[in-house]
């Protein structure tokens, strides 16, 4: 292999890496957990080790009294990513919304490690007290979180169970018709709360 | 089925109405001229000569193997099966070899003392794609496939086992693992910082 071949190969490698990074639109700078998500807390996940040039699919779940993960891509991507990560080398993270269907707590992603160094990544996801399907646009003065107002229940009560093991963790969600609009309520373990219009 | 038949019948009608099945030539229109006999003979000979060569070309027999994969690169085992797992014991499957384009399903169970399956990791060739397809309390079922590279590949699964029941809170779980085709990274090798 002569010198020009070596240079050509290096240039090709640099261009390829650059193209992959550009296409992936990756980088924690554009990925801010909890951006545009109400009643949100960032939930940091355990570090995961990655080897040289590999892709892993990974599922993470919002838990506790902030059980709802919001996929902001549902707004045409205008909301930005509701996730972020820290790592020392180059990673690219793409969310898989179809794999989150019917699981309001789930964040599903394909994580590419575009580096020749071993590294670990720490993911953080934005988790909310408010379900993403709450019709917030119907509340002209914003919303607030309250205890159950005990208004008449409308529609069916939904049970969402996270199938991550033999003992599923379930949340129960329902809506109530109050005089000032809809209340969307959640019960998880012994805690119950509702999001209502102001 | 009758619906399909109806559709076929409709297509045949449409074909006839568009003149594909023209029937005998109509009076007043000139008959199409036949190509010259020497031209037909030349086409036949050219086709006959090319046929064996086409049959011998493997690319013509099926999809081409992906040359971007480095089929000798073994992706290391990073020990993720025991991360955040209380009292973890790692168990592993036998090596599984997959021929080109082959797929297999395999299950890995946990031992009696630590019967609860938690996370998983692999040692595998770059061109093997492994994904989690099912989980029970005591074991994991995975699907491993060789991504049409023209070469066989191997994989071994590692599972973290514990006396405590699996809990994905704060850890999530891995769904799949595969390599990024590294042939175009030239002579790049894994580097430990």
Plain-language structure description:
The complex is a heterodimer of chains A (198) and B (193). Chain A has 198 residues and is mainly beta. Chain A has two domains: 25-128, no CATH class; 136-197, no CATH class. Chain A is built from one helix and 13 strands. In chain A, strands 1, 2, 4, 5 and 8 form a five-stranded antiparallel beta sheet that branches. A five-stranded antiparallel beta sheet of chain A has the order 9-13-12-11-10, with no helix packed on it. A three-stranded antiparallel beta sheet of chain A has the order 3-7-6, with no helix packed on it. Chain B has a domain at 74-183: Immunoglobulin-like, CATH 2.60.40. Chain B has helices at residues 2-17, 37-56, 58-61; strands at residues 74-75, 89-92, 96-98, 103-109, 116-125, 128-135, 139-146, 153-162, 173-179. In chain B, a hairpin with a 3-residue loop joins strand 6 (128-135) and strand 7. Mean pLDDT of chain B is 75; it is low at 1-35 and 46-60.
Topology (SSEs and partners):
The complex is a heterodimer of chains A (198) and B (193).
Chain A: H1 3-24, E1 40-44, E2 48-50, E3 54-61, E4 68-69, E5 83-86, E6 91-95, E7 106-113, E8 119-128, E9 143-146, E10 153-162, E11 169-178, E12 181-188, E13 191-197
Chain B: H1 2-17, H2 37-56, H3 58-61, E1 74-75, E2 89-92, E3 96-98, E4 103-109, E5 116-125, E6 128-135, E7 139-146, E8 153-162, E9 173-179
Antiparallel strand pairs in B: 1-5, 2-8, 3-8, 4-7, 5-8, 6-7, 6-9
